[in-house]
Amino acid sequence: MTGTPPVALAIAGSDSGGGAGIQADCRTFSDHGVFGATVLTAVTAQNGRGVHAIEPVRRQLVLAQLDAVVGDLPLAAVKTGMLASEDIVDLVAERVPSLPNLVVDPVLASSAGQSLCAGRAVAAYW
Fold first, then answer.
1. Strand pairing report for 102-104 and 75-80
2. Can you tell me whether residue 23 is helix, strand or coil?
3. What whole-number distance in Å separates Cα of residue 32 and Cα of residue 61?
4. Parts of the chain with a pLDDT under 70
5. Which residue stretches of 6-126 are H helix?
């Protein structure tokens, strides 16, 4: 590949076990020759056996990350994953007009079936 690679943004949670979330999105981007930028929405303590803890990122910090990336990088596409809270779902929804080629992957539960969304976040998707 020559020249500057396309840039994709993942807006999702972190999987400390590395099997999903931002980590998996970045691997997929890289495998396809795409530069991956990230906006972290939650930090999880998880492994192949389950999710042990979840800490959503505050809305203001998610907004600051999003503004920093959108204001600096020529985004070709954006993918969402675990948005973690109603506030973060609402924030992303407010920004949809400025997010090119948006792919919404509403990650609501882990592969083991544990909820990854706090409170009314699930209802906010619909």
1. parallel
2. helix
3. 29
4. 1-2, 107-126
5. 21-31, 59-70, 86-95, 121-125
